[in-house]
Amino acid sequence: MKKHHITTTLEVYESISELEGPIQALMHKAQVARDKAYAPYSRFKVGAALLLDNDEVVTGNNQENAAFPSGLCAERVAVFYAGAEHPGRSIKALALTVHSETKNITTPVPPCGACRQSLAEYEVRQEAPIEIYFMGATGKVVKAASVEALLPLVFDSSFL
Ligand code: THU
Question: Around Cβ 1, how many Cβ atoms within 10 Å?
Fold first, then answer.
């Protein structure tokens, strides 16, 4: 038996203002998208902004449904829209932010597992990492250098 250790290195920024200009602007777009989320059931709004390789930005937010599982997370709304509208483009970065009506979230909130899997499909296909920046409503911002950093041992098309 051999043990394999998987390590991930994350960068932690004290606030949005410590980020580089284009990423700061991307996070601001995620905030604008977040505030337009449709989240009447969870009262937890999420905004996602994707920076494409031509510097266009695509945003998304969570869209809930009275039949709960029929809703969709912000990240998948954004990445599926990018895939639908800009199929040849690769994605350079994703910025994520949240706002809860029930508590003040200052801890960085990472993408859920299902969104990591969906994002991984695009990262594998474009053969280039997607940087992920995530935060709460305020406070620190965490950067992961790739989807793979947040989802090691990914299941992808190479197994099919
Ligand atoms: N949500 C997202 O939009 N992204 C995530 O990564 C985690 C959860 C949404 C789904 C639902 O509308 C609400 O947040 C509460 O789970």
Answer: 2
The per-residue pLDDT for range 97-156, each reduced to its tens digit, is: 999 999 999 999 999 999 999 999 999 999 999 999 999 999 999 999 999 999 999 999
So where are the chain's domains?
Answer: 10-159
Choice from 112, 116, 118, 133 to test ligand 1 binding pocket (greatest atom count within 8 A of CB): 112
Class of domain 10-159: alpha beta
Q: For the whole model, what pTM was predicted?
A: 0.97
* Cα dihedral sign, 43-69-116-50: negative
C-alpha 33 – ligand 1 centre gap (Å): 14
